[in-house]
Each structure stands twice: as C-alpha cells, then as structure tokens.
Design a protein that fits this description.
Helices cover about 75% and strands about 0% of the residues. It starts with 5 loop residues before the first helix and ends with a helix. The relative contact order is 0.10. It has one domain (about 20-125): Up-down Bundle (3 helical TM bundles of succinate and fumarate reductases). With about 130 residues, it is mostly helical. The chain has helices at about 5-10, 20-45, 55-65, 65-95, 100-125. The chain binds protoporphyrin IX containing FE (HEM). Protoporphyrin IX containing FE (HEM) binds near residues 25, 32, 35 and 39.
C-alpha cells in the first residue's frame, strides 16, 4: 500500500477521506511555500533601492495596480493562516492542550477568517 508507485502518487491528489487536520497541514504547507516565494520576491524588489530612487519609484507606481493589491492580500492571508496555524501546531507539539486539538484548529481557522476579512476590508474599502 505504501510502496512507491505511480498509482500511490496519484492518491496524494485524491481529496476524499481526509481529516480536518490533514487539510490544515496541506494549507500550512501551501502558505509556507507562498510566503517563502514572497520573501524571495520581496528581497529582489528591495534590491531595486540599490539602483537609485528612479528604479524604486517605478516599482512603487506598479505596486498601486489592482493585481499587486490582490497579491498583497494573498500574502497577508497566507501570513495569518500560516502564523496562527503554526502557533497551534507549536502549542500541541510541545504537549500543551493536546486534548483540545480539534477546538484549537477551529479557533485558529475562525480567527484567521475574521482577521483576513478585517484586512481585506481595510485594503479594498479603505477602513
Ligand atoms: C508567526 C509566524 C510563523 C509561525 C508561528 C510558523 C510556524 C510554523 C510551524 C509550526 C511549522 C511546522 C508545521 C508542521 O510541522 O506541521 C512551519 C513550517 C514552515 N514554515 Fe512557518 N511559521 C511562521 C512564519 C513563517 C514564514 C514568514 C515563512 C516564510 C517566509 C515560513 C515558512 C515555513 C516553511 C517553508 C515551513 C515548512 C512547511 C512544510 O514542511 O510543510 N513560516 N511554520
């Protein structure tokens, strides 16, 4: 069953019979990869500062485009989801509140949703 085979690899992408904790793990990994990619992009953009004010100003102009704003919102959402879920994983991995894993998962997910909505409102509706 657990031997490497093309059929078993396809099973990775089968969304059936998965627990909420597995979905949280998948989301944590996707957001982790997204944040890492963003960190690399962020450092490249900051490198523009070394090319003088004109190069940076041209980036700042681009940063006002709606597409970049949506990208920024995704980074904020990924940071909130990964951060709060990461705290939950850290707490239970250290042996604290293990009886309340399920409640902590829902609490971190609901809190993430609320914080994401607050940020989205501020970003897109201005307050
Ligand atoms: C509040 C801040 C953060 C907390 C509390 C946090 C916590 C965690 C925890 C606990 C894990 C292990 C998850 C597991 O074993 O199930 C993890 C994985 C990871 N985190 Fe974070 N993290 C934070 C911010 C970040 C940031 C800013 C980045 C990237 C720039 C990042 C990148 C990663 C990566 C690449 C992994 C490995 C993912 C995987 O193996 O699936 N984390 N984080």
């Amino acid at each position: 069953m657990n031997q490497p085979s093309p059929r078993n690899i396809l099973r990775w992408f089968d969304p059936r019979h998965r627990q909420p904790g597995t979905w949280a793990f998948i989301l944590n990994r996707i957001t982790a990869l997204g944040l890492t990619l963003y960190l690399a992009m962020h450092l490249i953009v900051l490198g523009k500062l070394a090319q003088g004010p004109a190069a940076y100003d041209s980036f700042v102009a681009l940063a006002h485009s709606p597409l970049v704003k949506i990208g920024e919102m995704l980074v904020i959402a990924a940071g909130i989801l990964h951060g709060l879920n990461g705290l939950r994983v850290a707490i239970t991995s250290l042996g604290f509140a293990t009886r309340y894993q399920r409640q902590l998962l829902w609490a971190s997910t609901i809190l993430s949703g609320i914080l994401i909505l607050i940020f989205a409102r501020a970003m897109f509706l201005g307050g």
